[in-house]
Write a structure and sequence with these properties.
- The chain has 122 residues and is mainly alpha-helical.
- The chain has one domain: 5'-nuclease (Rossmann fold, 3-Layer(aba) Sandwich), CATH 3.40.50.1010.
- It has seven helices and three strands, in the order E-H-H-E-H-H-H-H-E-H.
- Helix 3 runs antiparallel to helix 4.
């Protein structure tokens, strides 16, 4: 399963990339509620339909804030340039080791690679 971050979804909504369409058709993309919330803050075409559609995708596990804080300390993720939502996405992938994180954010990708959870996608 692939957990796509907000950068991937923004690209998809703008350009409808082939790889993302393939993964969506095979139900290989998971969604995180924080990514949906970030997208809801932006400009979406056919907003209500897009957000409802996202809600029907397979869900990544969601960590509690205390679990994320413990992960940050245990894995030395502080001072690496990622934010709280990024840390939540990392935690989701660590909770379900079959899930890989797909991002275009360089700092988040570096963290995901160091933890062995980066998706090898363009």
């Amino acid at each position: 399963m692939i957990l796509a971050d907000t950068t991937i979804w923004i690209d998809h909504f703008r350009t409808r990339r082939v790889e993302m369409r393939r993964l969506l058709q095979s139900r290989g993309i998971a969604i995180h509620p924080f990514v949906v919330a970030e997208l809801a803050l932006g400009s979406l075409q056919d907003r209500a339909r897009a957000l409802t559609w996202l809600d029907f995708l397979p869900r990544a596990p969601v960590a509690q804030v205390g679990e994320v804080r413990a992960m940050i300390a245990e894995r030395s993720l502080y001072s690496r340039g990622i934010g709280l939502i990024d840390a939540h996405l990392v935690a989701s992938c660590l909770m379900d080791r079959s899930t890989r994180l797909w991002t275009r954010d360089e700092r988040l990708r570096n963290v995901a690679e160091s933890l062995g959870i980066a998706a090898d996608l363009p």
